[in-house]
Specification:
The chain is α+β, with helices and mostly antiparallel strands. It has seven helices and nine strands. Strands 1, 4, 5, 6, 7, 8 and 9 form a seven-stranded antiparallel sheet that branches. A two-stranded antiparallel sheet has the order 2-3. α3 packs across α4.
Length: about 220
């Protein structure tokens, strides 16, 4: 954002979901003091076993964002591993035999969201930060690519991008995000990222999401 730009305050009442089933355990799982396999709610993910849950939980930031958007507009929150598998079938991820995972690949994922869920979805690269308030004011949400250390506003992240958060609001002070790997009580829901800080985390690309009527240009 440019200095002295005014942002009309907006905050969408979007339900929050972490990429792990127990949001209160996120800090411990990231720190390694609790294993993802030991999440007591792992079965709610739709995974067949704790190992499959753990595999996806570390990689499911985009699926958590989609889950939030689906609950916001459709009132449904499909299990996160089910969404991940559907996205893989649609080309949003490429899972290799050696365990590597490519993705989230934005364009095929956006096509999946449009065809499977009937929402407006548009992969944008670039997606300038200064355009985000306008999209939010128009009723959209934005899945944006940031470095995961945005959860603590790390002063010197090693790079931009690598993690997806859902932009749900904005004001003069900063962007409001739901962070799937944020810390409980600190940086999970409506976490404010000051405009002056956003640039060092944000890779300048993302996926705009909106209600179905936006697909028809209404």
């Amino acid at each position: 954002m440019r200095q002295n730009d005014h942002v009309q305050p907006i905050s969408h009442p979007v339900p929050y979901y972490a990429q792990w089933e127990s949001p209160e355990l996120v800090a411990d799982i990231i720190a390694g003091t609790v294993e993802a396999e030991d999440d007591p709610r792992w079965e709610q993910s739709g995974a067949p076993d704790p190992a499959e849950y753990a595999f996806w939980s570390w990689r499911a930031c985009g699926m958590a964002c989609l889950r939030m958007a689906l609950d916001h507009w459709w009132g449904v929150a499909p299990p996160i591993v089910r969404l991940a598998r559907e996205s893989t079938d649609a080309g949003g991820y490429v899972r290799h035999p050696d365990g590597r995972l490519d993705g989230l690949i934005h364009a095929p994922f956006a096509a999946y969201v449009r065809s499977r869920w009937g929402l407006y979805a548009d992969a944008r690269s670039p997606l300038p930060a200064e355009e985000l308030p306008g999209h939010l004011a128009a009723g959209r949400l934005a899945m944006i690519s940031v470095h995961p250390s945005i959860r603590t506003l790390e002063p010197a992240p090693p790079r931009a991008g690598g993690h997806l958060v859902l932009a749900v609001g904005a004001d003069d002070e900063g962007l409001l995000v739901h962070n799937p790997s944020g810390f409980a009580g600190e940086s999970q829901q409506h976490a404010r990222v000051p405009w002056a800080d956003l640039g060092r985390f944000y890779a300048g690309r993302g996926i705009l999401l909106g209600p179905p009527q936006l697909e028809r240009g209404e």
